[in-house]
Write a structure and sequence with these properties.
It is elongated, with a radius of gyration of 30 Å. Strand 1 and strand 2 (about 110) form a beta hairpin. The relative contact order is 0.07. It has a two-stranded antiparallel ribbon. The chain folds into 3 domains: about 1-25 and about 35-95, no CATH class; about 105-150, no CATH class; about 150-305, Lysozyme (Orthogonal Bundle). About 55% of the residues lie in helices and about 0% in strands. It has 13 helices and 2 strands. The longest helix has 24 residues, at about 1-25. The protein is an all-alpha fold.
């Protein structure tokens, strides 16, 4: 009787799961019944009907689990494993597009990838694929991180200062001078944001491989990172104990947080309250050569932002 009941249960489960598969994926034979076609239409555009169909299928599965409890432990475990394996394969097949597909919806968050909707950091399903949304997401994430660290507003993504740095120095925290990290050569693929400060000191040594590479390009520099710090500056800050005061040691990773902290110190050293705008412009130009390329109006806007007098 137990074997007969088990066989009946397997057939019943198979029918239920086949029905669930058709509702989600469609009839693989291409001979869908009218009810299956209706389910497919619902899956494409009528969310309420699809939800109801899935609810019915889920109820059938629940009943099957209830019936399994009445069988022997060994039989129940065997049926349970089969059921879960079949259900898992159907769900994965329904959710994840194949390599050959280019879905119009981001299947991770059900957001229209062509949408120009602004980024909403409070949304549980933010649009991650639209270019503008990606930029806004990066800025929001960066701002949240900097705010948690108690960094000043001028260091936040989207600020006048950060915009000026992006335009004249580098756009990425992983940037190396002349994009050494992204062009053919010894440094291709290097991620400096994953390296400890001790390795950064070695990388930016005078007459080291990186310095020699830049000299061959006609530039006497070892600039790295979002703010294009040179090795001499980093080692000077280390030797004077400044980095230690900032909580940066030999083992500290040269990531976004570390680079931002160093940049804040350098900015505040160059833009002192008693400096005139002219003096502040000159000082900023000594720290960042690219700052000199900005118009005087834009330089002043950056300085006022740093001082909080916009």
């Amino acid at each position: 009787m137990a074997e007969e009941l088990s066989a009946r249960q397997r057939k019943k489960l198979e029918r239920q799961m086949n029905s669930l598969a058709e509702a989600i994926l469609g009839d693989p034979t291409g001979k869908s019944s009218s009810s299956t076609r209706e389910s497919l239409m619902s899956a494409r555009g009528q969310a309420s009907k699809t939800k109801a169909a899935m609810s019915d299928a889920s109820y059938g599965v629940k009943r099957s689990f209830d019936n399994l409890r009445k069988q022997s432990k060994a039989e129940a475990e065997e049926e349970n494993e089969k059921l879960m394996a079949r259900l898992s394969s159907f769900i994965v097949g329904a959710r994840e597009p194949s390599d050959s597909e280019t879905p119009s919806l981001d299947w991770y968050n059900s957001q229209d990838i062509d949408s120009d909707a602004p980024f909403d950091p409070t949304s549980s399903r933010p649009n991650l694929t639209n270019t503008n949304a990606q930029t806004e997401r990066v800025e929001a994430t960066d701002q949240n991180r900097a705010s948690r660290q108690g960094l000043p507003a001028f260091i936040l993504a989207g600020s006048e200062f950060r915009s000026a740095i992006s335009d004249t120095e580098a756009k990425s925290y992983d940037s190396m001078f002349a994009n050494a990290e992204s062009v053919d050569g010894k440094f291709l693929g290097m991620e400096i944001t994953a390296m400890p400060m001790s390795a950064i000191y070695d990388l930016t040594e005078l007459n080291g491989d990186f310095h020699k590479r830049n000299l061959e390009l006609g530039h006497d520099t070892t600039a790295v990172g979002k703010y294009q710090f040179v090795g001499n500056t980093l080692r000077d800050l280390r030797d004077r104990g400044v980095l230690e005061e900032l909580g940066i040691t030999e083992d500290t990773i040269f990531n976004e947080e570390t680079q931002d902290k160093i940049a804040v110190y350098l900015v505040q050293r160059r833009v002192k309250p008693n400096y005139s705008l002219k003096k502040a412009r000159e000082e900023m130009g000594k720290e960042w050569e690219g700052f000199k390329k900005l118009s005087e109006e834009r330089q002043n806007a950056v300085i006022r932002e740093i001082r909080g007098t916009l």
